[in-house]
Amino acid sequence: QEHVCSLPKVPFRGAPCSDAAGSQVPYAAIMKQVNSSLSGLLWDEVQKAPFYEYKDSVGQFHQVWFDDPHSISLKAAYVKSRGLRGIGMWNGNSLDYSKEAAAEQQTQAMWKALTP
Fold this sequence. Notes:
alpha+beta, 3-stranded antiparallel β-sheet, 3 helices, 28% helix, 13% strand, globular, glycosidase, DIAC acetylchitobiase
């Protein structure tokens, strides 16, 4: 089925369903890989999140789901509209802190998106 990628069922701390079979990809790698992926950037309207698809060197299909400034800003706006006390971002150290101009712009945009 198009855009369906299943993870093997791997128990994690007693949870019957988890992403323990997946792995974390640094945002810098995502930004470099998304444009050369099979699918290019895709958007899931239910999750309000971007993702892309690629095949590795042995032909295995993968999906990479992540947040970007747009998806973070939607989540931050939701939190604010509900009067909730805050929002966090998982692993801000996975952003690209190199001195490349595009990387600096992406990283600043991610941090700014946390404040609606």
